[in-house]
Each structure stands twice: as structure tokens, then as C-alpha cells.
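Sample pair:
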Amino acid sequence: MTAANSVADSVFKAIESTSSVTEEQLSTLHFLYGKNFERATRIVDQRRVKRISGQPSGRSIFQVVGESRRKEEYFCFPEHYCACYSFFYDIVNRGEQLCCKHQLAARLAAVLGICVDVQVSDDQLALLLVKL
């Protein structure tokens, strides 16, 4: 884990413990993520983050609606993976970013408790994951 990821983790844990964000935390996240943070906050503000949880396991995946006109939906795991092009190009291939805006939006919405929560069966969740 990089130092930047460690700093981000501590900021997200602090936000989750209080369910609010301070100016200092916003500044830190903006410094770490730049424009991706700005884009992610717009996605969160527009309630475009859905947490799909399987029952009875409680396992979940996030579905994030992008900002493009097409309103594409991307499945992601906030700390590990996103199905978007930017994840593969900017993060995996070039190593230029810590995460994409969809991962960041999912993580921010989750720690603030403002995801749109959807419950599905574990079988339905498995079918979604197969599509990845």
C-alpha cells in the first residue's frame, strides 16, 4: 500500500466514524485525487451510487452511473476494481491515478451512508458478477 492510499484510508475512516466531512478532509482528498475527486463528488451529490447487496450473504458490489450523456453504469469494488475504461487505462496500464472517479464516488457514498441500497438474492448478485 502506498503512503497516499494509507492517508486516504485514514481520511475515509474518519469520515465514516462521524458521517460528516470537514474542510481539512475535503482538502486532503482533493490533493490526493484531484479532478477525480471533483467528479466523484458530483456523482455522489446526484445520488448516482447504488450498493447492490446479496441476501443472505451481505456481499455487495457498487453500480455507479457515469457523467457522460449516455449515463453508462459501471460495476466497481471501491478499493480494487472498476469496469470503466479509465480504470484500465489510467490506473492499471499507466499507473497515473490511485483510482477512478467511480471507485471514489462509491467509497465516498459508502462512508457517508448515502448510497441507494438495493437488496437482491445471492443468485442474482452472482449473475451480475458473471457479467464482469
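The first helix runs from residue 3 to 18.
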